[in-house]
Amino acid sequence: LRVAKDKVMEAYCVLVVDEDDVLRRVMTGILQTEGYRVLATRSVREAQDLMDVFQVDALLVDCALPRRQGLALLLDSKIQGNPVARVLLTDSEQVPEAVQAMGTGLVHGLVLKPVLIKDLLDTVARMLGQFHPGDELLRPRRASAMQVYDVSRAG
Predict the structure, then answer these.
(1) Are 86 and 78 in contact (CB under 8 A)?
(2) Are residues 102 and 110 in contact, defined by beta-carbon separation less than 8 angstroms?
């Protein structure tokens, strides 16, 4: 939960974009357990639609999306000036490309696949702390009633 003085604000919103249905659901579950509000999708188009409707605090995007769409989504977010932490999911083969993206400011953090829970949570919390430095809590308390939205269409 974000806390500002005596006022409790809504939880941070993390948008997860990954074509791997199992990994996407596991990551959303982990983030949800930590108290984040989670939006999840398998496509860039759906991610853009969600960003038009919801205030997203962090983007967690797979580098391996077809036709470099993941990097394109992060670039669009940067160009639009959205104050959002941009985190790239990558495997060892894509590390050079991911490091280059970090060097240009396109990406703020990396999470390597296979995803380790500690790395995922630490990276998201650290990136949110950089983008919301006035907030007193970098990681929300566990919240069992938080809702996960996965808008991916089967098929």
Answers:
(1) yes
(2) yes
